[in-house]
Amino acid sequence: MNAATQASSQPSLMSRLAASGAHQRLLAFASLIVLLVVFSVASPNFMQMSNMIAILQATSVNGVLAVAATIVIITGGIDLSVGTMMTFTAVIAGVILTYGGMPLPLGVLGAIATGALCGFCSGSFIARMKIPPFIATLGMMLILKGLSLVISGTKPIYFNGTPGFDQISRGSLIGNILPFLPIPNGVLILFIVAGAASYVLGRTVLGRYTFALGSNEEAVRLSGVNTGSWKVAIYTVSGAICGIAGILIASRLNSAQPALGQGYELEAIAAVVIGGTSLSGGRGTIIGTLIGALIMAVLTNGLRVLSVAQEWQTVVTGAIIIMAVYADMVRKKEV
Amino acid sequence: MNQIVEMIGIDKRFPGIHALKNVSFDLRAGEVHALMGENGAGKSTLMKVLSGIYHPDGGEVKIFGKSVKLDGPRSAQALGIGIIHQELMLMNHLTAAQNIFIGREPRLKLGRIDEKQLNKQAAEIFASMNLSLDPKTVVGTLTIAKQQMVEIAKALSFHSRILIMDEPTAALNDTEIAELFTIIRQLKADGVGIIYISHKMDELKRIADRVTVMRDGEYVDTVPAAETPVSRIIAMMVGREVNEKPLDVPDTSANEVALEVTGLKRGREIRDVSFSVRKGEILGFAGLMGAGRTEVARAIFGADPIEAGEIRVFGKVRNIRSPKDAVEAGIGYLSEDRKQYGLATGMTVRANVAMATLKKFTSKFGVLNEPAMETVAKDYISQLGIRTPSDVQTVRLLSGGNQQKVVIAKWLLRNCDVLIFDEPTRGIDVGAKSEIYKLLEDLTALGHAVILISSELPEVMRLSHRIAVMCEGRLTGILPGGASTTQEEIMKLATQRESAMHVSGAHS
Q: Does the residue A221 lie in any domain?
């Protein structure tokens, strides 16, 4: 038995790497390094600490949203509402803090709870009413966009009355301790969220069912698992993470901008896809998504440093997405 | 009479299986030639050779007296051979005419389709079949029988003189069958030769001229349909000698009743099915394809809804509305399609083994206890002899037999008292089969109640303590297991169609 295990561990390891999307992740990581090298050679300004921090800061919101999207996409679903959900939770935070004058922690919790509630609704539409995820979350996206505008009266809500709110994202706990490394809190929060999500996906029953639903939902149902409830739970968690993104963006802008949000979902999904998560479900990692989000931020930043027109940056991002998915398809054929 | 098809000494091997052994078959113009045999006898393989899907390893195929080489479905089509598959291959949203001429529509200039011509040509074919059907009807709105007519029209549009029909009446009711037979007689009169694959004995008498029986990939005999008694045809189909020693049926009559089902109903699929199974007993379910055995299993397991019926587990009435309820009641179901319904094939052996029991391995905060799962998984790997390099191997990479053992491990771990095995050895090689058999026997020794659904009669007879036989959604009888029951008795019950009972009775 032992000998057999040893003899065949080689192909098994290979296939496991392939199956877990590690190949794509390596490819994504290599692309990230290549981009960093190319941009630093092309411009001396690129590799400076301030610019690196700017890239990380730019990654934070999209990164958190992408983590929320990753969880849903691993189940084989999709969430088009993450962007407007983020905005909606930011507006709710504004209502609680600025209009309601409540203490800061209540605003934060309110935003996260609102996100969870929105996710719960999406999840219920999908699992109970059997509406396809694409449609359910498309509807949710529009509902939340509209509600944000209605509640805010289409005007931004500023957080000037809540001292310290902007510090949630812009302050730097690390910088206070290590002055040479002024990494903003927003980035810290991204890594905490990513770490927690990674743990949940890899170590908990919720994570196990997330992958199992994406891998073969019917088999899970026939194992006696209440797949509907778990799906609702997964969308709820994803919604709560959108709430965190809402706090981050509101803090960074020190305001809730009700018109913002649409388009963020596509950036988030792009990061997920570049990071090797399969849109057909059952396969994906948070670390891949982080790399995907970083690639997009580095690209945007690098092209700006090289003074490439912003219009072209969008074109390049689109091309990258197609290349990333093509690489994934080629790999799938090989397996 | 002139032979339009002659297949002589056809041989076909697949890895590990000798599917066709020196099989001969012929078809005359204007006849209906029925091809019969149990599941796996080689009928479909032979027809796939004739329709160019498989290349034979040996033998000769002559069409209209000329030796031909069929190197694909297209070349078979060009020779006038049409096949109507059991599952209809129509596009439901297109019209009848559009379906018939898909891929070869008459064109106008600039690539526009000549719909008028299209409908005219379809109407001509329908007229030649004596069929009144508007070519512009959307196929999805037609009955299954009418859809079948469209398939036949499509085959005829290729000027087919040879038609293969694979279980054409499987989904039809009696009126629709009569409709189909009218068309078939019409085609016969026009000199079309028809090869008719069916399990239904009474249909042979009504439509076939000759019957050829196959068994275990071999040609058995060809007999005239009208003069040969049904009992003789059945004997030809099942005539293989059962080598295994007859089952020693243990006396389980004193054991507690584990599962009792009364008056289970759903539409035409499950018609008032009642039975019970005791602890330590294997209740086999025999029947032909589509008899409703899987439907009964899925209904008991809560995977599909029921209209009426009561399910008791150890005497207690259980309201089972979902698989979750069934599992909680202590019922486990091993589906016939492991890959689609039994396993998350992209996940590891360990994850799949624990899939139905995750609660056991979860802490208060929802964190999974991987080491505990590893121990259990490794335990089952050695206990069931699952051949896998490790417990974290992706299930997709295991062989069929080992995948099946993973599913079994999943339910053993859940400790279900009642286990339903649906075709547990489908797609599994001979060696692994006997291991699965051994496992089933061990399970009953441990006190599990086992329901075994299998399309292979020898398998049912080898394992079952009692044999329930189904036909068209009805339970037509429960026979004792062991040597006292013959294959003929089972086949008789399995072909006991409600509407045709007197017909087959008259001939046997």
A: yes
pLDDT, tens digit, 9 for 90 and up, residues A259-308: 988 889 999 999 998 888 888 888 899 999 999 999 989 988 888 888 88
Average pLDDT over residues B348-357: 93
pLDDT in tens, B184-234: 998 999 899 999 998 777 788 889 999 999 988 889 999 999 888 888 888
The dihedral of CA B74, B75, B78, B79: what is its sign?
negative
Rounded to the nearest 5 degrees, what angle is found at the Cα of A270, between the Cα atoms of A267 and A276?
Answer: 150
Local confidence band at A1 (pLDDT 50, 70, 90 cut-offs): very low
Count the domains in chain B: 3
SS3 B308: strand
Bridge partner residues of B196 (DSSP): B34, B165
Quick check: A219 and B355 CB within 8 A? yes
Joined together, the tokens standing for residue B38 give: 């149990």
Distances in Å between the alpha carbon of B208 and those of A77, B223, B499? 52, 11, 19
Residue B312: phi and psi, rounded to 5, are -115, 135
d(CA B166, CA A97): 71
Q: Which of B305, B165, A48 is nearest to B149 (CA)?
A: B165
DSSP code at position B427: T
Say if A6 falls within a structural domain: no
Rounded (5°) CA angle A293-A295-A297:
70
User: How many CB atoms sit inside 10 A of residue B88's CB?
Assistant: 16
Q: What is the pLDDT of residue B431?
A: 64
B301 at interface of A, judged by CB pairs closer than 8 A: yes
Cβ-in-10-Å burial (0-12, 13-18, 19+) of B484 comes to exposed
Report the residue of chain A nearest B341, measured CA to CA. A219
Q: Is the ipTM above a cut-off of 0.90?
A: no
Amino acid at B193: G
Closest-CA distance, A20 to chain B, in angstroms, reads: 9
Give residues with Cβ within 8 angstroms of B405, minimum separation 6.
Answer: B384, B385, B386, B435, B436, B439
Angle at A286 between CA B369 and CA A142, to 5 degrees: 115
Tell me the shortest Cα–Cα distance from A21 to chain B, in angstroms: 11
Contact between A185 and A173 under an 8 Å Cβ cutoff? The reply is yes
Report pLDDT for B381: 93
Number of domains making up chain A: 1
Q: Are residues B425 and B300 in the same domain?
A: yes
Report the pLDDT value the prediction gives residue A16, as an integer from 0 to 100.
Answer: 46
What is the pLDDT of chain B when averaged over all its residues?
A: 87
The token pair that represents B404 in the structure block: 């099946």
Residues B153 and B205 in one domain: no
Residues B319 and B428 in one domain: yes
CA gap B403, B339 in Å, rounded: 9
How far away is chain B from the Cα of A187, in angstroms, using its nearest Cα?
26
Domain that holds residue A321: 23-334
Residue A227, domain CATH: 1.10.3470
The answer to whether residues B204 and B98 belong to one domain is no
Q: Is B334 on the interface with A (CB under 8 A)?
A: no
- Residue B391 inside a domain? The answer is no
Query: Which tens digits make up the pLDDT trace of A64-112?
Result: 999 999 999 999 999 999 999 999 999 999 999 999 999 999 999 999 9
- Tokens found for residue B225: 């349909």
Write the CATH number for B421: 3.40.50.300
A269/A39 Cα distance (integer angstroms): 25
Q: What is the mean pLDDT of residues A193-213?
A: 93
B216 lies in which domain range?
A: 1-80+161-167+192-240
Instruction: Report how far apart the first and last C-alpha atoms of chain B are (Å, whole number).
Output: 30
Residue B185 placed within a domain: no
Residue window 259-298, chain A: list those with CB within 8 Å of chain B: 282-283
Question: Tokens in use for B158?
Answer: 């290729």
Across B238-341, the runs of DSSP E, i.e. the strands, are 257-266, 270-278, 282-286, 308-313, 316-318, 331-334
* Short-list B141, B170, B164, CA closest to B152: B164
